[in-house]
């Protein structure tokens, strides 16, 4: 049976950009599950599945609707135990939560800083109005003023990835010798940046960039099916 | 059979202070293993087990000598599979490495800043000379000048724990509903501070402080057997 994935898009339906939706996309591919996607714009999210969620991703698997990328991964692990594991056991399930919080609090703020104007430019007219209003209210500044800080913050951002970079001296993936959902959590954040903005967050020689490239190669190069922003 | 743990002490043998030794102590207790300890001062480390290691912890389990706290945990998990797990599976084993790198790069530098002079004061005369020389060479400054920065860095340190703090909104331990070695990794860093310095790193109301208190209660209050520095 095909799983329906509601994923966030802008004007171009072929360029899903949400970090959280990418986490779900990679988790579904990791489980080898067939999916169909429902491209969803910001303003369409409240209507999906009868108002099930304020955010995407949302999946429908038969009668079951699951919201939130982490809960989707937990659901898939439980519903499809015979497919490749997303967590590698209960310890991995618990520690993936730490990694999710680390990614959300370390990588997401800087990607927002770097890509906010580009993310705005990806939306259609109506969603661009929503995006600007909601984000300028959240940040208390114009989008352009938020992004003006990205050059000044770049070095600190790269330094903030040092735990991941250092870990990659021990093993090729956060999941060890092969990727787990924890990899897709961090991948999602950097894929969001890759698709939204040509701004270079990482030097090519960075071990984190090399890990990210390995993640782009996974599942038949799934992450590369959307070209990097140019 | 009793496992021998070489652990770092200063003048007072009853106050082992090393973060890495505390990781091993908690891991051994988690596995319910009997231990005897060999209190070891900095300058005695190169001589233990015929020069097996430049650092402690080192354990001897029968014929087997294992060095490095993470490798000790991996060894115990493999050697004592019927005892409570330290990792909760292969995923947890891999992700604990990320948490170890995060702790080492986030918590350790600030604890060093906060406690360096107090750590010096804990050593006997000969080891105090070694400690001052080696640390002042490493930092390129006098110990007292390093510690002078601790008030200025305190707020940023507390903020840097936000991934852990945020995760504790989901679950009581890094390991989930109960502690795993990943908890002991971070515990070790804060226990090092607790034993070395009266300087207050965390507010009592902080969720991280409350998690740390839960860790102090584990294994019969093992962590509390050494009183906090006063």
Automatic annotation (TrEMBL), chains A, B:
Pfam family membership, one: GST_C_7
One GO term of the biological process aspect: glutathione metabolic process
Annotated InterPro entries: Glutathione-S-Trfase_C_sf (IPR036282), Glutathione_S-Trfase_N (IPR004045), GST_Omega/HSP26 (IPR050983), GST_UstS-like_C (IPR054416), Thioredoxin-like_sf (IPR036249)
One function term, GO molecular function aspect: glutathione transferase activity
CDD domains xrefs: GST_C_etherase_LigE (cd03202), GST_N_etherase_LigE (cd03038)
UniProt cross-references to Gene3D superfamilies, sorted A to Z: 1.20.1050.10, Glutaredoxin
Record GO cellular component, one term: cytoplasm
Protein name: Glutathione S-transferase family protein
Organism encoding this protein: Mesorhizobium jarvisii
Lineage: Bacteria, Pseudomonadati, Pseudomonadota, Alphaproteobacteria, Hyphomicrobiales
